[in-house]
Known about the structure:
Layout (H helix, E strand, L loop, with lengths): L1 H75 L4 H19 L3 E5 L9 H13 L7 E6 L11 E5 L2 H9 L10 E4 L3 H19 L4 E4 L2 E4 L2 E2 L9 H12 L34
Antiparallel strand pairs: 1-3, 1-4, 2-3, 5-6, 6-7
Protein name: L1 transposable element RRM domain-containing protein
Organism: Mytilus galloprovincialis (Mediterranean mussel)
Keywords: Coiled coil
Amino acid sequence: MNNRIAKIETEVEKIEDVRQQLSSVVQRMDQAEHSLAELQQHNKEMENSFEGMGQVVEKVLEKCDLNRNDIEKIEENPMQEKSIIKELQETVLDLKCRSMKNNLVFNGLTYQPSEDCEAKLQNFINRQLGIEYMVTLGNVHRFGKYGRNGARPIVARFVYRKELEHVLKQAYRLKNTNFGINEQFPPEIEIRRRKLYPILKNEKSLGKQARLVRDKLYINGQLYNPENININPADNDREINNQQAPSTPQHREAANSPPIPPRSKRTRTESDTAEKSR
Length: 278
């Protein structure tokens, strides 16, 4: 009798072991099903992404076909060469402007070895501009030529356009200080803007509403005729080269920032003196 009971207990233990193993298998199956669902969702997102990329590629191919047709027209009719080249240059320039649309250049911030540019800029925005929240920034680094305080300006890409506009609205606080903020533009646009600055100031002094949008001047809502501005192409190239030419600073900082387009001209109020070291 005892042997039968012991045998039954042994069988029950085996059944319990099998039950536990089955429970473990079921648990692993649930995990596998969950992982499979996540993988399927990821694959679906990848498919959507590839579909979007395919549409972009199709548009690029269409643009290439159009460019090929333009090239054929140039070869067939050399008289159209200048106009087409100018149009392509303006297209490239427009793309440059769009790529810099969310960029701001901050001038006057002193350089410190091993500095954290983003932390320095967030602190500047908080203390000097009175913006208490942390703005969302992308790439932040120094670039361009050295300023009068031996430091290069800082360029920052804003993730949100509204935050960039908020910073620009607060830039009036920097009047009569060592600091300056301006939107970033390609050198070609800066040259055109420089030609318009005297006209802009003069029209404002006459009580007219004048504003500069990229390289276009609007006076009382009307576009100013750009043909009144004479730009010598040779002077244009020379000014661009001058902006890109390196200068020798008194204190050299580490050149580990990725290259970006050259520094743009300040459009906000800045003092002529350098910021005192904090």
